[in-house]
Amino acid sequence: MNRIGIISRKSYNNYGNMLQHAALSEAVRLLGYEPVTANYNFHGWKKRYQNKSLASIVLSKCLRRLRPRKEKAGAKLVNPVRTDKFRRFLADNTNLSAPVNTASELYFLGKTCDAFISGSDQVWAPMWYDPHYYLDFIDEDEKKIAYAASFGRDSVQKNEPGILMGENIAKFAHISVREQCGQKLVDQLAHRTAEWVLDPTLLLSAAHYNKMEDFSLVPRSPYLLCYFLGGRKSNWDNARTIAQALNLQLVFIPFLEADLKVDGIPVTEAGPSDFLGLFKKAAYICTDSFHGMAFSILYEKPFAVFERHSEKSERMSSRITSLLNYLGLENHFCADDVLSPALYTESIDFSSIHTKLQVFRDSSMDFLKKALARACEAPSCDDYKVTNTCCGCGACEKVCPRNAISIVKDAHGFRSAVVDQTRCIRCGKCRTVCPFNGHTANPLMDMKGLYAFKADPETLLHSSSGGFAHRLGEQLADEGYSVIGCVYDEEGHRALHRVAAPNDRAMRRQFQGSKYIQSNLSEAFAAISNGIEHGLFIGTPCQTAAIARLLGDRRKNWVLCDLICHGIPSENLWDKYLDYLNQKRHVGTSPQVNFRDKSMGWKPSHLSISGNSVSYKAQYSEDAYMQFYLKDFVLRDSCHECPYRQTSAADLRIGDYWGKRYAADKTGVNMIAALTEKGQQLLDSISTQPDVFCASHPITDYQEGQPCYNNPDVPPERSEILNAMSKPDIPLSQIHKKWMAPRYRILKLKKYYSELRKLMRNHR
């Protein structure tokens, strides 16, 4: 039986969302396939500032202050009972995969499927852009199916990723959309034709939902059911008018905090099965929800649909009116708050409605049937790939028995694995050592303990933070360990991992300090291959995971220490930056670089570069390189999809102790997570030395204080910036002027504005 993957939004407890998951899975099963639903939560692009003028930002802020504050959705409604009902519903009514949180995990899930479907429920909403909902993890376009994909509205704004959306949509072999306006958007964005199909919930008849329904929360007396997502007062007033006219009690499924103040009977613990039961037994239904309307029709209930938002720019009624117009029910949409008595006095001829609905259902199922058959028949890609999110570590190149893998710098300045398909024998050795092979390491929050650490003053002076890594290296070197750490090669303008023998103190000194560029691990791999039995490795989490896998059985003789990592920037940025700095400051072509100069203190952070008897020093917020880097515009794809921000293959993880606890410190404090018994023992040993400070703190400090705990969003401007960085004739100053200078001017003005407001409050 062919296996069909399905991905859709499921990051919130939304009834329609859960029900369309179950319905699409059931429809695929009825067609004779084995469905598997990707257990994936949205973590893609969010709306953010894009080079707006200061005037437009000030104006929008003023308008926001003048508008009434929107209610916060769902805060009082989330409780263990309701949450558990949603979880159990999804588990009971879909074949849910193991959790897939990153692109590499999705990629290997995709390899177990014969075709993949993206659908439905706003998977293509421009304000929530996530490339995974466009099946970017599937190699074969012929195996990509969009079923009832929804944009949520009928236009894409200028500050939304329309170009990226269009490029991704164009790759689908089979495209269908839930709304007619979606057909126009597919044509505009991707120059493709899309078929209009039913929402998955309407592919099934009412009888198919019998096994999913629960009636335990249904009131005994006749009732009008309200399910509103927008919270407009006029909608509640109209619903109350209808309830009084029909002599029905008003029952509602609350969504907003303000809903709980409504005069009626709230059902706060309703799960998806209760939702079905409440709709099935209602005497009348008022809603502003697409799925509220869908189940009103499916269960043959008299109903009225209202506008969700007052502002025209926020209205999302196109998805509702498309279906109502087709079924001849357009008079059941209450536009502009005009309530006609015919809405609740005239009956609906559901026999003719269901005839039209069945025609639509048949054509929609026919689209899905043909798309699945063709996708399953399409040949799989023969080209062998180590992973779809290469981090450039080079472990695969080292273990390949046929020398079929090379680490090559791509156009965007990232070193990635390239497989020679003529040499590759598909042995799979490369995937066993790849840190992005779909398998994660140990959960970080299972750590043995979290600690703050400060070394002696001399060590602190040459260390980026608290000096723990250096003290760890010195102690293990005294015990006969070789130490592998990172140095900056001034002549080559690159970072390299080097091996320091136990007696090589000078080399270990070079390991001190951060290097915010990708390092080459070739020497480290060679040392491991040459049989170093006892060693300490310090590197990024992905590099450390690769080393752990390369070591195999020898892992027990090694100590691995990874870093709290912001990410790896493009080499193109670094090359352009050095050229830019030489032209501007005349520091030469091979200057000395200190990525974290603490001569002026631990905070704020400074970068310093010197050469030709010239010195340059700047705060990160004033430096072009660090601005691009820290705002995530030039990170590798793998850095946005890293499985190691919350897991680790190391014994210890170290970084800066950010947060309030040591905010006043001037010389640097390490945050250290002891991840294994070995790591804990080493930390205990070093902490007893008389010239160091070490204190235990709650492990929640890591989550609360580390900005790198979660993967960063992909900025919508990233691809344009990387493309510009790849062109030799475009200087960094030009790229910076377009993308970063306006942004930092605004940030600076916001900071001054905030300080001014604070000052004014203090003088009242």
Walkthrough of the structure:
The protein has 764 residues and is α/β, with parallel strands linked by helices. The chain has 3 domains: 3-46 and 65-204, Rossmann fold, CATH 3.40.50; 206-348, Rossmann fold, CATH 3.40.50; 442-709, no CATH class. The chain is 36% helix and 17% strand. The strands form 6 sheets. It has a 9-stranded mixed β-sheet with strand order 20-19-18-21-22-27-28-17-29, sandwiched between helices. Strands 3-2-1-4-5-6-7 form a 7-stranded parallel β-sheet, with helices on both faces. A 6-stranded parallel β-sheet has the order 10-9-8-11-12-13, with helices on both faces. Helix 1 packs parallel to helix 3 (80-93) and helix 5 crosses helix 6 (180-190). The longest helix has 28 residues, at 350-377. Mean pLDDT is 92; it is low at 47-51 and 71-76.
Describe the SSE topology.
Elements: E1 3-7, H1 15-30, E2 34-39, H2 54-66, H3 80-93, E3 96-99, H4 103-110, E4 115-118, E5 144-149, H5 162-169, E6 174-177, H6 180-190, E7 195-196, E8 223-227, H7 233-245, E9 249-252, E10 265-266, H8 272-281, E11 284-287, H9 290-298, E12 303-306, H10 318-327, E13 333-334, H11 342-345, H12 350-377, H13 395-399, E14 405-409, E15 415-419, H14 429-433, E16 442-443, E17 449-454, H15 457-462, H16 468-478, E18 482-489, E19 494-500, H17 505-510, E20 519-520, H18 522-529, E21 535-539, H19 541-551, E22 558-563, H20 571-585, E23 592-594, E24 606-611, E25 614-619, H21 624-630, H22 637-640, E26 647-648, E27 652-656, E28 670-674, H23 677-687, E29 693-697, H24 700-705, H25 718-725, H26 732-739, H27 741-762
Parallel strand pairs: 1-2, 1-4, 2-3, 4-5, 5-6, 6-7, 8-9, 8-11, 9-10, 11-12, 12-13, 18-21, 19-20, 21-22, 22-27
Antiparallel strand pairs: 14-15, 16-26, 17-28, 17-29, 18-19, 23-24, 24-25, 27-28
